[in-house]
Amino acid sequence: MKVASDTIAINKTLLTFELFNKDVKVTAKLEYYRDGIFNFSIANPTNKSGFSFYDVEERPVLTALFPHIASKDQNKMTLLFSNDENYENASFKSKYKLVIDFEPFSMHLLTMDGEVLLDFNSNNDLTISDQVMFDLRFPTPHLFGLSERADRVYIEGAKAEDSQREPIKLSARDFAKYNVNCPIGLYGSVPVLVNMHNETTRGLTGVFQANASDTYVEVNNSLTGQADVVWLNYVGDIELFVFTSETLSDFFNKSAQVLGFSYMPPIWALGFHQCRYGYLDEAMVDEVNEKLKEFNIPCDSITLDIDYTDGFKYFTWNHKTFPDPDAMLKRLRKNRRRLITINDPHIKEDENYPVFKEGKEKGYFVRDQKGEIHINLCWPGKSCWFDYTNPAARDFWASQYRYDKYPYTDRYVHAWNDMNEPAVFDPTTDNTMNPLNLHTFYKNGEKRDVEHKYVHNIYGFLMTKGTYKGMIERDSPNKYRPFILTRSFFAGTQKYAAIWSGDSGSKWTDLAIQVPMSLTTSLCGIGFNGGDVGGFMGDPSQECAVRWFQAGSFMTFFRAHSEMNTKRREPYTYEPVYRSAIIRTIQERYRWLYYWYNCFEEYVRTGFPVLRTLWMDVKAKKKASLSLLKEDEQYFVGESVLVIPIVERYKRYIQIHEDLCDEEWFTIETGYVENSSEHYKTGLERLGVFIRADTILTFADLPK
To answer: Which pLDDT belongs to residue 704?
Structure first.
């Protein structure tokens, strides 16, 4: 494509120009914000609805800077930025500049010293048609991000001579027992890609393509030491945010300004959660509640899956199996436990079900291509799906959490959103929503339709946004902080909820991949996350279960969960030697609770994630080695605690990464580690947790 140079215009803080080729002519917009953040957008003429992610979500609140054309000729122009229209007299001048080539069109982000941080369309791949495609070039091969993948943190793309590795695909789906070390995205989609452009300063450049359609990212780590990326969206617009910094702290702050800062969870939500698909009645809940007390196992919540509902009608109770929910809740509160209940987006087709009846009357469900309510199969049988793109439908969903509508609930009952990819029991559409189904949204006050393929990856995100609103409003004017767990997510979900890694298997390999998955998701802005301890499907060995509890206890979200056909796996069900190790692990989580809470406060305030890869060490004083960049089995919690989970059978020795061995480290059990380069012995009850010298920790007493 080419720039029509005579169309370049500056309207205060916005620069526009036209791009064209023989097939299409479009208007490109460029807005530069706080130094090191800019947005480049192109509205796709094939997007007849005009739908944009920011029609359903708040746009980042950023102060734009004034663009200044520093130089221009027939072939290119160089842009500088300031906080004053008069650049020469401005009190602020940019650290960065943008160079735009006219024919063929490309764009280059550089430091003022001329160091290239990002090239856009340098390979001339920009395509604006039914699909949207563009290419990016980063100065180093060190790429991270693109959650949610059951894969390593460091993205190993294909080499220039090898095109066999599949592109990374982000398309929210319901996966049962997903494969590990696979580039296929799972339940959530965070289209954020991060490049470390400077191994000495840990300088980073990130991109976020705010497009909710299916996303394909092909990574080629060239022999020249660069990274070439081809980005393709199934449909929609280009809405590309770029953010860069030479320091880690500033980068994650900029990232949070673009993607959103996290909400602050209540401290109890950082404790242990017990869940199982198959708590079929009150008696089972009471049994778990009392057994946890009997074995002195601290636990802040018990979670109910779909079994508690009346015929899978959400916001109801099965009074045959749960005859007195109010009394059950009182028994839980006596032991200082909350209840978390599941509510899925599929609604049973039943005229006697008020949620269905009112939703149908008011037009709050997703429609098929003919404009009729889309009916398909899910847990209740024939079901329809809430249209969360419609703000009125989202508000209606939120209202179902009111105490007068959701019986037997109070501020001690919290929310779990599941099956919200959305999962549909229809193999003809890959077990998700038909891409041609219709949603409702509003643009400039005008009611419009948009096909599901444009909004697929934000369906679960919008459900969670509605749930958060409902949980806040139900307790108004009291300002109780809710806890919400969601399976499907998008960039920005951290503003509303925690996520977990879905239906994993229970083998050692499934355990091992949880750490990289959690680190990648944290790096993409969603810092409250974890996995099902023990795995959802299958039965782990007892040793594997112990190690899973230990690893889970040093992730931000700590929950044990399993499916109905597995053995009962509550912490007290294991043989004594394994049970003792598990109980001690859970108790230790509570001793560390103040540290977790302080780490979250920093994360919420600054955007710097709680869980950090080793290269995210703010105290590092030397260049990051390649082995450090690829390390994702060891990680930091905050800046002071190094965690080395054991994810292999019979493993009893661990070793601190060689790049950290010149520091002083301590353990709670043994004190000073005299030689951190040697192997450290860990028994069954001991997890590798090392505390940095000169760290002050405050430990909590165990809850009674």
So the answer is: 63
CATH number for the domain spanning 333: value is: 3.20.20.80
How does DSSP assign 536-561, residue by residue? SSS---HHHHHHHHHHHTTSSSEEE-
| Domain identity same for 209 and 77 | yes
**Judgement on whether residues 295 and 244 belong to the same structural domain of the protein:** no
> Could you tell me where the beta strands, DSSP code E, fall in 74-162?
76-82, 96-101, 106-111, 116-120, 127-128, 132-138, 143-149, 158-159
For 461-509, give the secondary structure using H, E and C: HHHHHHHHHHHHHHCCCCCCCCCEEECCCECCHHHCCEEECCECCCCHH
Catalytic residue among 228, 503, 570, 588: 503
State if pTM tops 0.90: yes
Active site residue 632: no
* 384 and 299 inside one domain: yes
Burial class from Cβ neighbours inside 10 Å (0-12, 13-18, 19+) for residue 481 reads: middle
| Class of residue 361 by CB neighbours under 10 A (exposed 0-12, middle 13-18, buried 19+) | exposed
Q: Which amino acid is at 386?
A: F
Same domain, 251 and 275: no
pLDDT at 164 over 80: no
Q: What confidence tens digit (pLDDT) does each residue in 631-677 have?
A: 999 999 999 999 999 999 988 889 999 999 988 999 887 788 877 77
C-alpha–C-alpha distance, residues 228 and 500, integer Å: 31
Task: Report which residue type is found at 149.
Answer: R
* Residue 701 within a domain: no
pLDDT at 160: 46
Of the candidates 214, 421, 532, 633, the residue annotated as catalytic is 421
Q: Are residues 280 and 327 in the same domain?
A: yes
Adjacent-strand bridge partners of 119: 108, 137
Q: Is 503 in the active site?
A: yes
Q: Catalytic: which of 35, 57, 237, 418? A: 418
CA-CA distance, 412 to 336, in Å (whole number)? Answer: 10
Whether residue 179 is predicted with pLDDT greater than 60 in this model: the reply is yes
Confirm whether 697 is domain-assigned.
Answer: no
Beta bridge partners of 67: 81
Catalytic-residue membership of 421: yes
**CA distance readout (Å), 206 to 80, 222, 428:** 20, 19, 36
What is the total count of domains within the chain?
3
Last residue of a domain, one of 222, 241, 259: 259
The overall average pLDDT reported for the chain is 95
Residue-number span of the structural domain to which 640 is assigned: 610-692
pLDDT in tens, 566-614: 999 999 999 999 999 999 999 999 999 999 999 999 999 999 999 999 9
Of the residues 234, 259, 284, the one at which a domain ends: 259
Please give the average per-residue pLDDT across 548-555, as a whole number: 98
d(CA 259, CA 256): 5
Beta-carbon contacts of 507 under 8 Å, excluding residues fewer than 6 positions away, are 535, 538, 540, 544
